[in-house]
Amino acid sequence: MTDFQIKDDFYLNGEKFKILSGAIHYFRVHPDDWYHSLYNLKALGFNTVETYIPWNMHEPQKGTFRDQGILDVERFLQLAQDLGLYAIVRPTPYICAEWEWGGLPAWLMTEQVRVRSSDPSFLRHLNDYFAFLLPKLAKRQLSQGGNILMFQVENEYGSYGQEKAYLRAVADLMRKLGLTVPFFTSDGPWRACLRAGSLIEDDILVTGNFGSKAKENFDQMQDFFAEYGKKWPLMCMEFWDGWFNRWGDEVIRRDPEELAQAVMDCIQLGSINLYMFHGGTNFGFMNGCSARGQQDLPQVTSYDYDAILDEAGNPTKKFYLIQEKMKAAYPERDYAEPLIKQAKKYADISLTGKVSLFNCLEDLSQKISSFYPLNMEELGQSTGYILYQTLLERDKEEAERFRIIDGRDRIQVYRDREWVATQYQEDIGEDIALELPERVFEISILVENMGRVNYGHKLTAPTQSKGLGRGAMADLHFIGNWDMYPLDLEHIENLDFSKGWDQGQPAFYRYQLMLDDLADTYLDMTGFGKGVVFVNQYNLGRFWKKGPQRSLYVPKGYLKKGENEIVVFETEGRYMEKLAFSQEHLYELISRD
């Protein structure tokens, strides 16, 4: 039986062992491409893969668990083991990871719990989730013949709280459900974070997260260890080799030469996990959101991260530079040429159908009526859009004063299905002048959840509840009698494109692509406004003319030979008669209107 221990160093079967790990999130990579990414990690000369596990994907509704397809973590771990890779697994309640609400499931907001705490209700829900997940991981521990070396208890908790009772409760649940290999925590490498977020008193390994200055950061960690009499190996659990991008910002890039040398500096002093080795894609509505002051800053669909592999899993210049330096410093390791996939620029395809959202609501949603508007979580929905509708009576000849109170995150207001205004979180609450040509008219409000905050002071703020909020006001009173259409867009197969299209409204646009050969490709969304794209019913993620990303990566695994259907849901009334493709990502910063 293979044995892994943490003493003054890491030991594998009694021999010192340097962990050379790279992060690959199985839930951000098409399952057909897992082998490609894992092979390239091994080819780099590394020996371990690390992954988070997102609670909100595995339990999207309370008591409903999923582990198939892109969520088949057992298959991912088996592929890694077959390639000779060990694994570090982070099944923590919260993952951050620039992921929708840091991996916490949105339904927790309806349970009146304090997340990331020893609140008995929160721990009860966590226990239910762990009872589903952890037995699958327990049998894949190194001690059971699998490849898992370590498990994380909590993630960067020192940047959030300091409740040791909570951390111990999580560790106890993990032990109760069969996890026996070593545990660890990871935090910023300075004392305040390490003291608040670790369980050093319980002899649980402390690791640090940083992306440069390895000596200075490791020195801080060693000083902290010394306070408690610990002589532990040094490990950077997240060595940030790039960074994520937000809508409307310039694309962030890190100099490959500088990064490669920084990685080697870290490896010479301790063990490393490259975050990310392969970033992948925030498919669907799962992008996270940053918080700066009171402003929310949603992140883009691509999780390219300027990582060692690009979004498609192909090696970047960083791969070759690191491998070159690794070969010089550690010539005894196994290296190989990386696998490379070729993307294809398919010919443009023509529009074959279009239908306005207002005309096909019954195809997508079941109407829910309430005097007061309900938020997304109350409607049993986690992500996507909600359309709110009511009738408003004219009380005066001049324009009516109209306001949305606490809507999140983006609203589009329509009067009798004609666009009136668009507001974002920083604008919502400001007056909207409603011209009322008729005595009674229909008000429609399309609200988009643009991504819940995944890190920082707003993680548990009321702003993470999405929808119309406290409601809408005309004059000085709240409006009642709402019809609501939850639009999670998980199922769009019943769309009837014969129901009519009206200019300037949110709408669905259908294109058909005939294929004899399959390859990765990129959809060029130039000319469209804002929305999401479905390829053969699968939600690729968001696009937005605001940039910097103006294309969407399409893995070959979502295509099929013969007829492929591509449906664009666009909310601004902007579309193209022809849909174009590219062989690579297209980036452009376009200012918001």
From TrEMBL:
Keyword Plastid appears in the UniProt entry: no
Regions annotated as coiled coil: none
Matches recorded under InterPro entries: B-gal_1-like (IPR026283), BetaGal1-like_ABD1 (IPR048912), BetaGal_gal-bd (IPR048913), Galactose-bd-like_sf (IPR008979), GH (IPR017853), Gly_Hdrlase_35_cat (IPR031330), Glycoside_Hdrlase_35 (IPR001944)
GO biological process, alphabetically ordered: carbohydrate metabolic process
Alphabetized GO MF terms: beta-galactosidase activity
Gene3D superfamilies the record matches: Galactose-binding domain-like, Glycosidases
Key words, A-Z: Glycosidase, Hydrolase
Domain Beta-galactosidase 1-like first all-beta: from-to ranges: 373-488
Record bears the keyword Hydrolase: yes
Transmembrane annotation, as ranges: none
Domain Glycoside hydrolase 35 catalytic residues, every copy: 10-327
Active-site residues, record numbering mapped to chain: 156 (proton donor), 238 (nucleophile)
Domain Beta-galactosidase galactose-binding, first and last residues per copy: 506-564
Domain of life per record: Bacteria
UniProt record similarity statement: Belongs to the glycosyl hydrolase 35 family.
PANTHER family: BETA-GALACTOSIDASE RELATED
Name assigned to this protein: Beta-galactosidase
Originating species: Streptococcus varani
